[in-house]
Amino acid sequence: MTEKYDTDNNRDEDALQTERYAAVSDGAGEMVVYDTENTDAWLKSDAAVEVAEMA
């Protein structure tokens, strides 16, 4: 099995990791999930679960 990157250096391990999708609570009990690369792509819901809970 190979590692994430097949290199002998660790410069990739120190790189900032970003996620394409993010979620925030609006403070009124609803969750907004959005695409950090496309400002037109988002959804708002009054119910949300962690991915691990769905397995």
From TrEMBL:
The cross-references to InterPro entries, in alphabetical order and at most eight, read:
DUF7331
Q: Name one Pfam family in it.
A: DUF7331
Look up the domain of life of the source. Answer: Archaea
- This protein's name: Uncharacterized protein
Q: Which organism is it from?
A: Halorussus aquaticus
